Amino acid sequence: MSSDDLTGRTAVVTGATGGMGRAIVAALAGAGAHVVATDLRDDGADDLLAAVADSSGSVVFVSGDVANAEHMADVVERAVSLHGSLDCAVNAAAIEFETVPLAECTVDDFDRMMSVNVRGTFLSMKAEIAAMLDAGTGSIVNIASTNSFRPQHDQPAYTASKHAVLGLTRSAAMDYAAHGIRVNAICPGAIDTPMLRSAMERRGRNADDVAGRLSRLGRFGQPSEIADAALWLCSDSSSFTTGHALSVDGGMLSS
Ligand SMILES: NC(=O)c1ccc[n+]([C@@H]2O[C@H](COP(=O)([O-])OP(=O)(O)OC[C@H]3O[C@@H](n4cnc5c(N)ncnc54)[C@H](O)[C@@H]3O)[C@@H](O)[C@H]2O)c1
Is residue 2 part of a domain? Predict the structure, then answer.
């Protein structure tokens, strides 16, 4: 058995109908995991379930808001009641819509960004850790960003939210290592998803220019390249890795 094999393991994935979320669900289910997938948007759920129908694992979809504590408790409870435990989780749900510097960022926009990206990650982790503590083992992967280290222009709240995701990751990694729970972050660079495409459109940017500026490899990353990293961090292959921020960014942060 490969140590990336998740046969019999149970996973939660948030942001599951988004660009990266879909690829992460497919990778985990393809490795044999039983996945409880959740997203605010359910319009892509049928496609997602069809795409993973032949995988060796299984997927159920539950729609709801990551910023709602009851919803995230229900998602985790569903994973445990269906499959007996929660072994891993990938928290990918987030929003990004900014085009202005800090003094022009409205309080409402700041609060909305924090509510989904920070409170949502916090509530997801809170429910996931509670379930993992019972088993004394688990792996949580938060999707942060290269913005967790290096801001892009005109993204004050998003940048702050992604710094906070790293803070939640490192804090929990420290507190729960002794309980057998590993907590890591993936910091994607420019990945070809609806979030990136809509950011470029809002800013009137050309895809080739953005790829050339944000990636040493001269191209956007693919969602599957983030999913491969998430699978590794969920699996026993990464058993000595915790509190880590793994850049999957085409070399962006190396310059
Ligand atoms: N695409 C990139 O270049 C890039 C770069 C760095 C980090 N990221 C991060 O990667 C993760 C995945 O983003 P993506 O690029 O796949 O974007 P995406 O917009 O395709 O997916 C995000 C998903 O989150 C869901 N979501 C939003 N608000 C929610 C809420 N309140 N409750 C539940 N679900 C909610 C959306 O419906 C969407 O399906 C995010 O955390 C994002 O910040 C993306």
Answer: no
pLDDT class for 36, splitting at 50, 70, 90?
very high
Query: Out of 61, 122, 158, 232, which one is annotated catalytic?
Result: 158
Domain containing residue 39: CATH number: 3.40.50.720
Q: Provide the domain count of the chain.
A: 1
Question: What is the span of the domain harbouring residue 238?
Answer: 10-254
Task: Give the number of the atom of ligand 1 that is nearest the alpha carbon of residue 220.
Answer: 3
Residue 5 in domain: no
Mean pLDDT of the chain: 97
Cβ atoms within 10 A of the Cβ of 104, count? 11
Respond yes or no: is residue 176 known to be catalytic: no
C-alpha to C-alpha distances, 84 to 72, 81, 87, 219, 251, nearest whole angstrom: 17, 6, 10, 42, 40
- 42 Cβ closer than 6 Å to some ligand 1 atom: no
Instruction: Read off the pLDDT of residues 90-137 as tens digits, 9 standing for 90 and up.
Output: 999 999 999 999 999 999 999 999 999 999 999 999 999 999 998 999
